[in-house]
Design brief:
By secondary structure, this protein is of the alpha+beta class. The chain has 12 helices and 11 strands. The protein binds NADPH dihydro-nicotinamide-adenine-dinucleotide phosphate.
Length: 380
């Protein structure tokens, strides 16, 4: 199907030229970032905050995590327009100790609140050696890895978790009570690229089920259950009342470990901070849509507080080298380190532009048109 049939915009010659052989439209990262920032600016978000939010969204697309990139712009815009997110994030210190902070995110954009929280965490860790920041009253913050990686600039290990609206069943359950609650850790190395683990604690994010449904494909057994909690391969059964399974899948594949990890994230982000948790995240208030009340958890560990930096990064390099150069399974040619594929995607996309599906491009133009901001393919 020609993706250009989507939206109300016709295909102009310039865009036709920008369509690549793979059917995507390429846009330079800086151009995309500026567009997204201007959209947020038109919705009353202060310019510096609009730029931070755009930076986090485009970082996801640069790293090949399209599910959490600019294709989500419409959801943030919709919530801002409905007054469910405050355009001006008034982040407030609730409790402040030597190595810990509790912040209230003022129901601001999660990207703004998350970036500020991690910056404060790093500043505290410079003094204390390590620091922990928990946040309540925030919103969806995009990719967890962005915030963990902020610590790398300071030769620190960074951790970032967030809770999310409930889509995942506990092992043996049939009611979605936990989110896809992601975990990220970023660790500096020496000559090697940093180790960056950034993962949902469910087998797959919900977007993969939606994609399978759109393509009319079945999903592997172990990804999800139907409304009765029975394993299913039918994406339709998942979307109509079913749920995702925690990381690992069913109990036979140790899904209870993923279940435990996602509850851990909900405890640190939701219960410890006083944010919403479980069913309460993004739950309707009196039957109406209300604020998300998402919680986050951040940590920063100064390497030098434990070991000389050179010794640590040298050993990180040795560890990564050993993993990469170990024996390959039959038929395989490469062992990856977490974050490696994303760094490679970023290098390529900075050169060639970010590939957007034509329907995503059309929806961005539509959002832009509504607020009076233009977007052109190719990035010129
Ligand atoms: P993936 O399953 O794609 O990847 C998980 C991790 O495994 C990544 O660090 C990835 O790095 C690494 N990885 C993948 N394949 C290999 C391999 N063969 N060898 C070594 N490492 C590998 O991610 P998810 O689908 O679980 O999550 C996607 C994003 O969604 C994340 O950024 C997460 O933060 C975000 N998210 C956000 C939520 C929110 O509410 N804000 C909720 C849930 C998820 P690499 O790709 O570089 O290999």
């Amino acid at each position: 199907m020609n993706g250009w049939a989507h939206g109300r915009h016709g295909l102009v010659e310039r865009e036709r030229k920008a369509i690549m052989l793979d059917g995507t439209v390429r846009i330079q990262a800086e151009c995309l970032k500026d567009f997204v920032a201007q959209v947020f600016g038109r919705l009353g978000v202060p310019w510096a905050d609009a730029q931070i939010t755009a930076e986090v969204l485009v970082a996801a697309d640069l790293r090949g995590i399209e599910s959490h990139g600019v294709q989500r712009l419409g959801r943030y815009v919709g919530r801002l327009k409905k007054g469910l997110i405050q355009p001006v994030a008034e982040v407030r210190l609730v409790r402040d100790r030597t190595a810990t902070l509790l912040l209230d995110g003022g129901n601001g954009l999660g990207q703004v609140v998350g970036s500020r929280a991690m910056e404060l965490c790093v500043e505290k860790a410079k003094e204390a050696g390590a620091a922990f920041v928990v946040v309540r009253n925030s919103n969806h913050y995009g990719i967890a890895g962005y915030y963990a990686m902020l610590a790398l600039r300071h030769d620190m290990v960074g951790l970032s978790f967030t809770n999310a609206r409930p889509l995942v069943v506990p092992t043996y359950g049939r009611e979605p009570l936990i989110g896809t609650n992601p975990i990220s850790i970023a660790v500096p190395a020496g000559r090697e690229r940093p180790f960056v683990l950034d993962m949902a604690t469910s087998v797959v994010p919900s977007g993969k089920i939606e994609m399978a449904a759109r393509k009319g494909e079945r999903i592997p057994l172990g990804w999800a259950v139907d409304v009765e909690g029975r394993p299913t391969q039918d994406p339709g059964a998942v979307l109509s009342g079913g749920s995702l399974l925690p990381l690992g899948g069913s109990a036979e594949f140790a899904g209870y470990k993923g279940y435990g990890l996602s509850v851990m994230v909900d405890i640190l982000c939701g219960v410890l901070s006083g944010a919403a948790f479980g069913r309460g995240v993004e739950a309707p208030v009196d039957g109406c849509e209300g604020p998300s009340r998402v919680g986050h958890f951040f940590a920063a560990l100064q390497v030098e507080a434990f070991r000389p930096l050179e010794e640590f990064t040298r050993d990180m390099d040795r560890m990564i080298w050993a993993l990469r150069n170990s024996g390959k399974a039959q038929g395989e040619t490469r062992i990856f380190i977490h974050g490696e594929k994303e760094f490679e995607a970023e290098e390529a996309r900075r050169r060639l532009g970010i590939p957007l599906h034509p329907s995503v491009y059309a929806s961005l133009r539509e959002i832009g048109e509504e607020v009076g901001v233009g977007l052109e393919a190719g990035g010129g």
